[in-house]
From TrEMBL:
3-phosphoshikimate binds at residues 21-22, 26, 155-157, 291, 313, 317. Catalyzes the transfer of the enolpyruvyl moiety of phosphoenolpyruvate (PEP) to the 5-hydroxyl of shikimate-3-phosphate (S3P) to produce enolpyruvyl shikimate-3-phosphate and inorganic phosphate. It catalyses: 3-phosphoshikimate + phosphoenolpyruvate = 5-O-(1-carboxyvinyl)-3-phosphoshikimate + phosphate. Belongs to the EPSP synthase family. It is found in: Cytoplasm. Gene3D superfamilies: Enolpyruvate transferase domain (3.65.10.10). Pathway: Metabolic intermediate biosynthesis; chorismate biosynthesis; chorismate from D-erythrose 4-phosphate and phosphoenolpyruvate: step 6/7. GO terms for cellular component: cytoplasm. Its EC number is 2.5.1.19. This is 3-phosphoshikimate 1-carboxyvinyltransferase. SUPFAM superfamilies: EPT/RTPC-like. CDD domains: EPSP_synthase.
């Protein structure tokens, strides 16, 4: 599916944030490992979360609507994570404690993404895993060691995977050099909701075995909301409902990031509203919220002056997001310099053109937002990837621009 976008005068209105993808993944896997039935209420339904739902079914869970009935113990399974890194990494950890042989595989890009540090941590705990990239063959067994150290400098998902199985079998998880640390806080909050008993010292977790089935309502997603909040900051005023201002989601950072650029941002009890302001260039480290990088690069392309955006893990996402945004912003006539870990962007007046999504949902949505204010028509040939995280993106866009 492709789209043609013509510039709009302004973007105004309000929409409801979809449910959080991060919380949905974690709740599904914890429901798989819990003692007793769980209900995951208002989950996100997207390509990635469906991959996780299919994974927990393969491990032996019964799913009846929002209710999940876990098996006595996860069984061996074939897991196709498609392009979901969260699904694959947590499933790999679950397979390591499972009751048989499992294979974890995924789509082309996911097979290129790193798994090595997680594999090595699981092996040190006693897991039997062949290979360090997908597909990975796992022989489930009781882990011999209950203390494990993981280098999470490439992905915080390595830490999340260990924390989740740690809550099933009991484990000390020592997390080193983590990027995207707020995602670990999302994991910790979800563990608490499922009755996990743990103490922590910074990012060292000491977890007792035992997860209790529960009813868990998935909160709204700051990651998805960020695209339309950025549109409000660039072109008008947009209010996003169903956002908890006290949530620990990484991409809640969109509030402070847009304010730093110069936008007006208001936060209410259950909403965030962004309004156009006099935007200026900024220097920002996005390492704790790398999913915001593409849309913040768009904001920088409209801001006056120079911006520098960095996040060292960006080249290992669904695409090389540094390269992807450099290519697209250059096609918009924006002066951009690619750095090893980010971009230097000289703001201006972007022009329309034909852009590439690199089969990356966040690149696709960011370039749609960029095109709304560009000079002239824009063509984005392939936007089907948005269903990975935000299937309702274009419906919500129409509510704001007509």
């Amino acid at each position: 599916m492709g789209v043609i976008i013509r510039p709009v005068g302004e973007v105004t209105g309000e929409v409801e944030a979809p449910p959080s993808k991060s919380y949905t993944h974690r709740a599904y896997f914890l429901a798989l490992l819990a003692e007793g039935r769980s209900k995951v209420k208002r989950p996100l339904v997207s390509d990635d979360t469906l991959a996780t739902l299919n994974a927990i079914r393969a491990f032996g869970a019964s799913v009846e609507g929002e209710s999940i009935i876990p098996p006595e113990w996860p069984k061996g399974a074939f897991i196709d994570a498609h392009e979901s890194g969260t699904t694959a990494r947590i499933a790999l950890a679950v397979a390591s404690i499972g009751g048989g042989e499992s294979t974890v595989n995924g789509g082309r890009r996911l097979r290129e993404r790193p798994f090595g540090e997680l594999v090595r941590a699981l092996r040190k705990a006693g897991a039997e895993i062949e290979g360090e990239r997908l597909p990975l063959r796992v022989i489930g067994r009781n882990l011999r060691r209950r203390d494990v150290e993981v280098d999470a400098s490439t992905s915080s998902q390595f830490a999340t995977a260990l924390l989740i199985i740690g809550a099933k079998v009991g484990m000390e998880v020592l997390i080193k050099r983590s990027v995207s640390r707020p995602y670990i806080e999302v994991t910790a909050r979800t563990l608490k909701a499922f009755g996990a008993d743990f103490r922590r010292e910074g990012f060292d977790f000491y977890i007792e075995p035992g997860i209790t089935g529960t009813s868990f309502t998935v909160p709204g997603d700051y990651s998805s909301a960020s695209f339309f909040l950025a549109a409000g900051a660039l072109y008008g005023r947009v209010k996003i409902r169903n956002l908890d201002p006290k949530d620990v989601q990484a991409d809640r950072a969109i509030i402070d990031a847009l304010r730093e650029f110069g936008a007006e941002v208001r936060v209410g009890r259950n909403y965030v509203e962004a309004e156009k302001g006099e935007l200026r260039g900024v220097e920002m480290d996005c390492s704790d919220f790398p999913d915001l990088f593409p849309v913040l690069a768009v904001v920088a392309s409209y801001a006056e002056g120079r911006s520098v955006l960095r996040a060292r893990q960006l080249r290992f996402k669904e695409s090389d997001r540094v390269r992807a945004m450099a290519v697209n912003l250059s096609r918009m006539g924006i002066r951009v310099r690619e750095l090893p870990d980010g971009l230097e962007i000289e703001g201006g007046r972007p022009k329309g053109g034909q852009f590439e999504t690199f089969n990356d949902h966040r690149i696709a949505m960011a370039m749609v937002v960029a095109a709304l204010g560009a000079r002239g028509e824009s063509v984005i040939p392939e936007t089907g990837s948005v269903s990975k995280s935000y299937p309702g993106f274009f419906n919500d866009l129409r509510r704001l621009v007509g």
